[in-house]
Amino acid sequence: SNQSGIVASSQLRSFFGSCRDGRVRLVKVSISSAADPCLELDSEQEAAGTWEDDWDRTVPKEIDPDQPCFILYRLDEKDSSGYRWIFLSWSPDHAHTRQKMLYAATKATFKKE
Q1: What order of strands is seen across the sheet that includes strand 24-31?
Q2: For the chain, how many helices (H) and strands (E)?
Q3: What is the CA angle 7-9-11, rounded to 5?
Q4: pLDDT in tens, 11-54
Q5: Which residues contact 111 (CB under 8 A, 6 or more apart)?
Q6: What is the pTM of this model?
Q7: Where do the H-state alpha helices sit in the chain?
Q8: Buried-exposed string 73-102: b where 16+ CB fall within 10 A, e elsewhere
């Protein structure tokens, strides 16, 4: 896969480190529009109920019909490394082609981080 060279900001990395306790349900990540773009924390939602209950309350309002983003959504199940997460890559058809390409090229890097 072709990678963009865009990496997570130090703020995002440290935030991910604090997500292991189960308090956070959803993390929305966007590529900053800075001259030297990076992956940055866009928003977060705390868990209030089961993952099924929280889905309708959190995911739809974080999706912008015109703006690509990455969403990490925490399930209630755990494995040996901790909570299990779902990775959503949102790239609407009518978003700018350059943005869609940037997100597609950054997805592999983001999943590794």
Answers
A1: 39-46, 24-31, 69-79, 82-90
A2: 3, 4
A3: 155
A4: 999 999 999 899 999 999 999 988 889 999 999 999 999 999 99
A5: 87
A6: 0.91
A7: 10-17, 51-62, 97-112
A8: bbeeeeeeeebeeeeeebbeeebeeebeeb
